Amino acid sequence: MAREFTPRPPRARLGALCRRGLIVLGLAALSGAGQGALAEAPGTPSPLRDDRGTPIAARAVERVAAISTFAADTLVALGVSPIGASTFGSEPLPRYLGAPLADTLSLGQRASTNLERLTELSPELIIGIHRYTEPHARQLEAIAPFHAFDVIGLEDSRRAVTGIAAALGKRAEGEAMNRAFDAHLAELAERAPGGVSAILLAGASEAPFAYYDHFLTATLLERLQATNAAGPSPTPDQAIPFGYSISLERLLALDPEVIFLSSTGSQRAFANNPVWPHLEAVRNGRVYEVGPHWKEGGGPIARRLIADEMAWRLYPETFARPELPDAIASHPYP
């Protein structure tokens, strides 16, 4: 199994970005947080549990495995390169994380992690997505201490980042990352002029999948003063489902000004629908294919990349284009 999906030149460029601090957000100074942001608040921090209900205890570990992109993202942001990582889609490893994963082994898909390979790596800690790892939780616990989180919304992201950091004995750093991101998002929101509608679509079938407001990337749309055309969930007390299949006729009725498409290795059937060319976003050239990190953007690195690129695509006259390698940057579709 290949250790790194990204060709050498893009990976080198990503490594340079990481070294310059444009991607790795572990330092609070990246978003203007002061040195004091890394200090614990007065008093004893409240105890934490993961989404399995397992208490989180700080461990001095070096060999950590990530069964998800967001877990690998958070580890890299905290200065830890995972020894193994699961992902989704066609990438054996999340290439947007670049050089820090140069020696990370792919464990396959997050829903079907190669447990034999994971065992051979002898991790001291395993972190994953709850809904994908629960069927194998006992097997994972037999390999190493195991924590799992379900990261669907923005608050889930904050909780998971704090929890993973706490498991590594770096809770203060995780909390500082969350504060720094919230401050950065508030700054973007203050500059965003608003008055634009958008939608996030995934899949390649005749009816694409649209994300409800509470899904993390859709929440970022709302925080940037845009309207998510897909709207809120009809079951707001439930995190799942976090989206629905939308017909092209329904999409035309909503007619968002901007469409963000998750990358896919398949030809999009819905783009061949005779309705597609009549959409305002299509007519105005405002359909953008985005990197796979938009689909699982709960880590500190991904959520910052998404927010910055989304702000630029929504309001190109207000925000400058973020500095991103072509390998992970969005581009007009087709």
Give a structural overview.
The chain has helices spanning 8-20, 69-77, 115-121, 130-133, 137-143, 154-167, 171-191, 216-223, 248-254, 280-283, 300-314; strands at residues 64-67, 84-87, 105-109, 125-129, 146-149, 196-202, 209-211, 226-228, 243-245, 258-262, 287-290, 331-332. Strands 6, 7, 8, 9, 10, 11 and 12 form a 7-stranded mixed sheet that branches. Strands 3-2-1-4-5 form a 5-stranded parallel sheet, with helices on both faces. Helix 10 (280-283) links the parallel strand 10 and strand 11. It is built from 11 helices and 12 strands. It has 334 residues and is α/β, with parallel strands linked by helices. Residues 1-41 have low confidence and may be disordered. Helix 7 packs parallel to helix 11 (300-314) and helix 8 crosses helix 11.
Core attributes:
five-stranded parallel beta sheet, disordered N terminus, seven-stranded mixed beta sheet, 334 residues, 12 strands, alpha/beta
Short structural summary:
Helix content is 33%, strand content 15%. It is an alpha/beta fold and 334 residues long.
Any chance you could write out the topology, listing elements then pairs?
Layout: H1 8-20, E1 64-67, H2 69-77, E2 84-87, E3 105-109, H3 115-121, E4 125-129, H4 130-133, H5 137-143, E5 146-149, H6 154-167, H7 171-191, E6 196-202, E7 209-211, H8 216-223, E8 226-228, E9 243-245, H9 248-254, E10 258-262, H10 280-283, E11 287-290, H11 300-314, E12 331-332
Parallel strand pairs: 1-2, 1-4, 2-3, 4-5, 6-8, 6-10, 10-11
Antiparallel strand pairs: 6-7, 7-9, 11-12
Helix pairs in contact: 6-7, 7-11, 8-11
